[in-house]
Amino acid sequence: MDQFTAARSNDVLFLRWKAGVHIAHALAVEAATSLRVLSDEQILPLVVVMGGINGLTTKARMGMNAYRGFSMVGLVDDGPVDEVLAGFAHNSRTPTRYFTSESNALAWIDYCASSEEETAA
Q1: What backbone torsions phi and psi does residue 95 show, to the nearest 5 degrees?
Q2: Which CA distances in Å does 116 have to 59, 75, 92?
């Protein structure tokens, strides 16, 4: 059974973890590879629906925080374990925020994109 689903919509990548998944380094690499294929080598924003992750190895967390393949990352869930896991993302090299709804994560991405367009003009 797949431990995640990956998709792309309107130049935003989506990663949805299955409930109860324990993420080891190999699984994190598999997810990143799927997203890289979907991005067609573009640096796009990512929304991660955590969905009740059961655990995350140190090596997987370090790899996720070091990966530079996304312009920004919105982490979504409202469970206490996922919020604690999301707290580790403060070390990420990519702008990352935690949200309790997917719509709020997408609003943040839209806001950041429009701010970048205004700055470039």
Answers
A1: -55, 125
A2: 33, 21, 20
What residues does each domain of the chain span? 4-120
Per the listing, tokens 């299955």 go with 18
Distance CA 83, CA 87 (A): 6
Tens-place pLDDT, residues 66-107: 777 899 999 898 766 556 666 656 667 788 888 989 999 999
> Tens of pLDDT along 52-70?
788 888 898 888 777 778 9
Q: With beta carbons less than 8 A apart as the criterion, state whether 9 and 44 touch.
A: no
Q: Does domain 4-120 have CATH number 3.30.750.24?
A: yes
Q: Tell me which DSSP letter residue 91 carries.
A: G
